[in-house]
Queue: 2 jobs
Job 1
Amino acid sequence: MDKNSFREKQMKALQAADSMKRAAESRLANEAKRAATSAQAGAQAPAAARGPAPASTKSEDAKNAAVLTAISNILRYLKDKEMAVELNKVLQDLNLLSSPLVARIRDTVQNNEKIEVEGTLVSYRTPYPVRNYDQLLALLKEMDAKGLGGLLTDHIKDSYKAADEDIKRLKAEKTVYTVMRREPPRCEVLFYCNPQFNFQVDDSLKEQWGQCPVASKHPTDIERALVAGGKQSMRVEMVARPDPKAAKKRAPRGVQKVHESMAILEDLTKKK
């Protein structure tokens, strides 16, 4: 075989091998593309397209939804009553006594943190043990006397229906002062305005107060300065009604700090 024939056969063999290689690569790429498209379609497909859920799961979900609706109605009922009511009376008034889920509803009532149970009686568990103006004012005075601070307005309004009007009355009478809470829930905090601190401040003292340098207006820096000066900031605890099921409930609510500027005023008065 001459050199030209051998070289021609060699070139044909190389071309055939290269063609087979490109065909294999193309086939693999197409298969990978189809697999990726199928996976994406499966991930985006709605639940209905993937097949119906088992009948037992649907039935259980429907029962849970019915129980939650019943508990929501019971809470509204008890909050409107503002008194303890026989559980059977509640179930009867809400047409739940003959429900096939009544046993589950009773169990849920027993373990609901918003419902107070005493024997056969149930009532709405209010954030604060107050039902009227006098009780609210008494609790504010008690909180002030014990150095516990103020009450969240949102929780007061959740305690009884006429709370909003009573809060407005306390403000109009200047019996309380308010501070806006920074952390959630963002709402006003009511503090009792103790009459013993209602005094006139001399103009000279006001001038000295205005001349006091403050390195930073950030609450944390101001608190450090107070502590460094031997002034203990007041801790304002948002206390609620004692809960007999406390072991099952969350940790106590957090506390809010309010700076005790009156202590500085007293010091300046003494120095004067």
Note: The chain has a mean pLDDT of 78.
Job 2
Amino acid sequence: QQQQQQQSTVQQRQRWLPHHHHRATGLPSLSNTPVPATMGNSGVAAAVLAATTAAAAAAAEASPANDGVAQDRAMIDLAITQFFAAHRRAEQADDIVRQARSGFYRAALQVKRAMLQAEEHIKSLAAAKKRQLSLLESQLFLEMARERDAIQQGWAALAQEKMRMTEEFGSQLNPVVRVDVGGTVFVTRRETLCSVEGSFLEALFSGRHHGTVSADQTVFIDRNPRCFELILDWLRDPSISMDHLQSDPVFCHELRYFGLYQAVFPPTLYQLFVIAGADSTRTALRSIEIFEVHASSGG
């Protein structure tokens, strides 16, 4: 294919030079000048230059009186020299372009390989992290299950201990107790004082704990007797309303000490209607949200 292109170039040059310069200067035609087809671009240039020089010399010898032959010959030589110089520069530019294209393709291939390697590395890291997270999740679930079992066992043991102590000491406990609160003695049933589970009085008089007991089996509690009297009245009859005392800070403080505040003043359920709208525009209201809030003014 390269030889065919070179032969085509030679034929074009042979067609252009003879006809153009023969008509312009009267030089002999170069169409019969043989040029090997296997020559490269430099060989073709040398052959054409030699043929042109020979033709110009023959024309000068044949027509010594023609003064324009020498000038035409010089112009032809200069044009041919410039033509082949430009041709060599074009070939050099083509070589540079091919080298640049080859370097670009190599760099692109390296970049693609690096991207593929980075992608594989990221995938491997993500898979390793996923495995680690899965392992940690499994360990966490196991630890949570063990802790839950331990808590359940603790509650079960506590319930059994409470039942055992109740069975052991319940029959020995006097159903009627004497309580000395701040110097005032109150006599009531043990069941009344233990009616609110989880309170201070329930823990003290259930038999699980022992308070300060005098010789006559009176339990002493160093608190406000006036407030304790009101508390004892409520324990005897929880239907009594204590709302008028909710603003009394001393009474509320005593209730918290005995762990009875939530029992005496249970939270009240309110429904708050919050209407949302715009402030500075006339846009219509668009939504209504309902919140259930447990509120207590003293809590």
Note: The two ends are 101 Å apart (CA to CA).
